[in-house]
């Protein structure tokens, strides 16, 4: 297939899916129109915009409502769960009813930064897993320096799992197989392109191709050659090209593969995602105002992973 370059990155004729991004973080929020235009020019026609807290999740859903190619998740990142209350979940339940919300997340455990106590993280991880089950949603999982604890919770609460995505997966092959056995897809970020990530690349070669996704985690974890800069969905092409090399496929073949996998992971049919999107979606709308209010906010800035 014909390929071209726009803004110094590869553009492919196949449709690309960014399985995990944060378009409503401060680094991207005020330039969203330009970011999405560059994404379309690069071939990105599906972006899962991931919530990390109550107020952030509201913005994430508003963005999904506005742009046809953007879908949303709602949830509270482990960094913010120390301030989380049952009333916050009630408010998020209202947001989760929106037709473009495809998952609960980003939830999980982060024992690297420990911005919330470990026991508090585990409590709200379990609570959000049960909440996702009640909503009939899959989950998007964050785990950092907490793989064993994450697997323990997921195995003990397996009855609450409807499937999910392991975001920015960095584990070894045994850990990958454990999450696959639980029904998860594994999503790979720009870390896959880093020079010192050879063990990760060797592991990816051994994974079933139908369970692998690609993501940017924008605005974090920009791939080579943009490492250290603000990441955006247009840069997905670099990670996808690396994955293609690992699987012995062309970038176009890998784009089609990961597109299908992303649709399957999030139970999307893909309709209406293969054309240029220049305005607001005409999708059905719901009131995005919180069902209830509290005097605190569970959002906290999400730090870069690199």
Labels describing this entry:
306 residues; alpha/beta; TIM Barrel; eight-stranded parallel sheet; two-stranded antiparallel ribbon; 10 helices; 10 strands; 36% helix; globular
Describe this entry's structure for a reader.
This protein has 306 residues and is an alpha/beta fold. It has a single domain (12-265), classed as Metal-dependent hydrolases (TIM Barrel, Alpha-Beta Barrel). Helix content is 36%, strand content 17%. It has an 8-stranded parallel sheet with strand order 3-4-5-6-7-8-9-10. Strands 1-2 form a two-stranded antiparallel sheet. Helix 3 (54-66) packs parallel to helix 4 (86-96) and helix 9 (236-247) crosses helix 10 (251-265).
Number of spatially distinct domains? 1
Order of SSEs, N→C? EEEHHEHEHEHEHEHEHEHH
What is the overall pLDDT average? 89
Question: How much of the sequence is in beta strands?
Answer: 15-25%
Give the % helix: 25-40%
Q: Do you know the CATH architecture? A: Alpha-Beta Barrel
How many strand elements?
A: 10
What is the CATH homology-level superfamily? Answer: Metal-dependent hydrolases
The first-to-last residue Cα distance is 34 Å
CATH-assigned fold name:
TIM Barrel
User: Uncertain segments of ≥5 residues (pLDDT<50)?
Assistant: 1-8, 275-301
Radius of gyration: 18 Å
How many helices? The count is 10
Structural class: alpha/beta
Order of strands across the widest beta sheet? 3-4-5-6-7-8-9-10
The first-level CATH class is given as Alpha Beta
Please outline the major beta sheet.
8 strands, parallel
Shape: globular
């Amino acid at each position: 297939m014909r390929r071209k370059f726009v803004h110094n990155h590869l553009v492919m004729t196949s449709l690309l899916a960014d399985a995990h991004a944060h378009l409503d973080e401060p680094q991207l929020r005020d330039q969203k129109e330009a970011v999405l235009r560059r994404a379309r020019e690069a071939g990105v026609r599906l972006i899962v915009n991931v919530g990390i807290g109550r107020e952030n999740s509201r913005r994430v859903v508003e963005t999904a409502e506005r742009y046809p190619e953007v879908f949303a998740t709602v949830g509270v990142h482990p960094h913010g769960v120390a301030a989380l209350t049952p009333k916050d979940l009630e408010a998020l339940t209202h947001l989760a009813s929106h037709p473009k919300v495809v998952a609960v997340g980003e939830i999980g455990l982060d024992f690297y930064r420990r911005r919330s106590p470990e026991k508090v993280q585990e409590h709200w991880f379990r609570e959000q897993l049960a909440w996702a089950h009640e909503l009939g949603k899959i989950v998007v999982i964050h785990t950092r320096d907490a793989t064993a604890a994450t697997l323990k919770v997921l195995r003990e609460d397996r009855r609450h799992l409807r499937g999910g995505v392991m975001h920015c997966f960095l584990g070894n092959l045994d850990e990958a197989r454990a999450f696959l056995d639980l029904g998860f897809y594994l999503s790979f970020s720009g870390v896959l392109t880093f020079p010192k990530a050879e063990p990760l690349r060797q592991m990816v070669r051994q994974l079933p191709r139908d369970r692998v996704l690609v993501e940017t985690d924008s605005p974090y974890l920009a791939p080579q050659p943009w490492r250290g800069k603000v990441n955006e969905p247009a840069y997905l092409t670099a990670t996808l090209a690396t994955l293609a090399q690992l699987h012995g496929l062309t970038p176009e073949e890998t784009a089609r593969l990961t597109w299908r996998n992303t649709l399957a992971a999030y139970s999307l049919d893909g309709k209406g995602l293969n054309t240029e999107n220049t305005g607001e979606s005409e999708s059905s709308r719901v009131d995005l105002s919180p069902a209830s209010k509290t005097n605190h906010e569970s959002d906290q800035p999400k730090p870069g992973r690199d």
